[in-house]
Amino acid sequence: MSGDGEMLGPVQLLICGFDPDAELRGEVLAELGRLSDAGTIRVLDVLVVRKEDDDTVSIVEANESGSVVAVLTGLHGDEEAPELPSEYEDIDDDDIWFPADAIPPGSMAALALIEHRWALGLKQALRGTGGALLAESWIDPLDLQAVGLNA
After folding, report:
1. Pick from 56, 95, 53, 99: which is nearest to 74 by CA?
2. How much helix, strand and coil, in percent to the nearest 5, is found in the chain?
3. What's phi and psi for 78, nearest 5 deg?
4. What percentage of the chain carries pLDDT values higher than 70?
5. What Pfam families does the database record attribute to this sequence (predicted)?
6. What are phi and psi of 12, to 5 degrees?
């Protein structure tokens, strides 16, 4: 992780679902590695989980720093939960996104925390002009198709 004063690019949590009986041969990790080697992204952490039919989630595999994704997503267990800043005290659970909710029961998922290294130049340019990123969002492929773009 970037703790030495190095600028950090935009960070995204990807949740990729898999059939629990599927043979995972490493294609996804290989592609993340290729993108990392090219300097496009940096993989900060990866965690593989299984969600049972009763909605319980268990960690199947974690890399050396798998605890980062576990803590960010609440999949680390309540006994290790970090204390939230006071400004979060009045937030209702209905207003919080729980990544585990995105995982269908009876499936597995890989949660990858990635830094978008390609965006560092843009971030520096924004800072240099006194600008700031105000919002960002992924556009759903169906929305793109609705406006004539094939995704």
Report:
1. 99
2. 30, 25, 45
3. -65, -30
4. 79
5. DUF6325
6. -130, 145
Residue where the block lists tokens 């993989």: 43
What are the tens digits of pLDDT across the range 33-63? 999 999 999 999 888 889 999 999 888 877 6
The phi and psi torsions of 96 (rounded to 5 degrees) equal: -105, 135
Question: Tokens 């600008």 identify what position?
Answer: 131
- Would you say the C-alpha torsion 41, 113, 136, 55 has a positive or negative sign? positive
For the whole model, what pTM was predicted?
A: 0.75
What residue ranges do the domains of the chain occupy? 11-146
Hey, what are 115's tokens? 């830094």
Span 97-144, pLDDT tens digits: 778 889 999 999 988 999 999 999 999 999 999 998 888 888 888 999
